[in-house]
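Subject: sequence -> structure tokens, single chain

Hey, anyone have a minute? Need the predicted structure for the following. Not urgent.
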Amino acid sequence: TSTTESKAPSNAIEVKVIDYSELDGCTFMLETTDGKKLQPVHLAEKYQKAGTRLSVVYKVSDGMGVCMAGTMVELIFVSEIK
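Reply:
Had a minute. Here:
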């Protein structure tokens, strides 16, 4: 039995999209299941909805964000959890 759905990589983690736009310079952040905040360098518009659950793989980015509310990360893999 094979599936056509793309499987998340084994190192993917689950995050929840949170809307941080009430803070200066912030937009959407990702919150890990253990409460860490990640600030994606680029989050596709289709995922920019508070409460959306995503499976992601990321690497920490060197850049500093205006938001300063979480770790800057570059998303390598993103998939919505339905």
